């Protein structure tokens, strides 16, 4: 009986050891995550016929990883250190999920990268925007889903508001000089006369005091 129990315990331990040997170690997973996070991602666009399409370039790829484009679930295996993917839309957000080619670590996502493309304004070149290119609805990258008629109405409303502001007369500013400044200016302009008057006054006081001393 005791021998049977020992055999059963050994049978239960064998699968456990095998699973541990096939699992992805912590150090290996950390190393692969670092490789995935070092992938550089940039994008560019092509403007044509009042529309834009975006292309994404991923470089610093590594043969130990592959990634999945979650917009169409297409898998991209390593072929070169760099790859360019085209056909993305304005205002779209793309998500790339990186995995390991190592069968022991392939079940866990190593890194997720997101790329958000700006919204293209197809009306920004319209003549109605001349002179007000800084207005939000007249900029190339503007998030708005307006019909052309609504776009014209809003832009013209903005132009009319500018004309109203220009016609408002600003009240004339009155330059009020502080009284302290007036006194300082007066002293600076007539300081010679003031000094003479003060000197004569002191001399007069001196003689008066001397005269009083003589008679006292």
Would you give an account of this structure?
It is built from 5 helices and 7 strands. The strands form 2 sheets. Strands 4-3-6-7 form a 4-stranded antiparallel sheet, with helices on one face. Strands 1-2-5 form a 3-stranded antiparallel sheet, with no helix packed on it. A hairpin with a 4-residue loop joins strand 1 and strand 2. Mean pLDDT is 84; it is low at 5-10 and 13-21. The longest helix has 25 residues, at 191-215. The N and C termini lie far apart (146 Å). It has 216 residues and is of the alpha+beta class. The protein is elongated, with a radius of gyration of 42 Å. The chain is 41% helix and 21% strand.
Key features of this structure:
7 strands, 3-stranded antiparallel beta sheet, alpha+beta, 216 residues, elongated
Brief rundown of the structure:
The chain is built from 5 helices and 7 strands, in the order H-H-E-E-E-E-E-E-E-H-H-H.
Strand order within the widest beta sheet: 4-3-6-7
Overall outline: elongated
Q: Could you tell me the radius of gyration in angstroms?
A: 42 Å
The total count of helices amounts to 5
Please state roughly what percent of the residues sit in beta strands, choosing from under 5%, 5-15%, 15-25%, 25-35%, 35-45% or over 45%. Answer: 15-25%
- Give the low-confidence spans: 5-10, 13-21
Quote the distance from N terminus to C terminus.
146 Å
Q: Provide the succession of SSEs.
A: HHEEEEEEEHHH
Estimate the helix proportion, in percent.
40-55%
Biggest sheet character: 4 strands, antiparallel
Overall residue-averaged pLDDT value: 84
**Category by helix and strand content:** alpha+beta
Number of strands: 7
């Amino acid at each position: 009986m005791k021998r049977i129990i020992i055999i059963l315990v050994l049978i239960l331990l064998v699968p456990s050891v095998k699973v541990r040997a096939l699992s992805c170690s912590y150090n290996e997973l950390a190393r692969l995550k670092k490789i995935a996070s070092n992938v550089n991602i940039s994008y560019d666009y092509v403007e044509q016929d009042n529309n834009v399409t975006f292309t994404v370039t991923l470089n610093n790829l590594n043969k130990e990883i592959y990634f999945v484009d979650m917009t169409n679930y297409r898998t991209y295996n390593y072929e070169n250190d760099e790859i360019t993917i085209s056909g993305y839309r304005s205002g779209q957000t793309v998500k790339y999920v990186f995995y390991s080619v190592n069968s022991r670590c392939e079940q866990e996502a190593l890194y997720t990268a997101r790329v958000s493309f700006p919204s293209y304004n197809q009306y920004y070149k319209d003549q109605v925007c001349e002179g007000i290119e800084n207005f939000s609805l007249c900029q190339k990258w503007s998030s708005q889903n307006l019909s052309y008629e609504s776009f014209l109405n809003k832009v013209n409303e903005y132009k009319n508001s500018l004309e109203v502001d220009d016609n408002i007369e600003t009240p004339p500013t009155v330059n009020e000089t502080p009284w302290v400044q007036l006194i300082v200016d007066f002293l600076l302009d007539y300081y010679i006369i003031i000094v003479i008057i003060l000197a004569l006054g002191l001399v007069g006081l001196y003689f008066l005091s001397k005269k009083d001393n003589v008679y006292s």
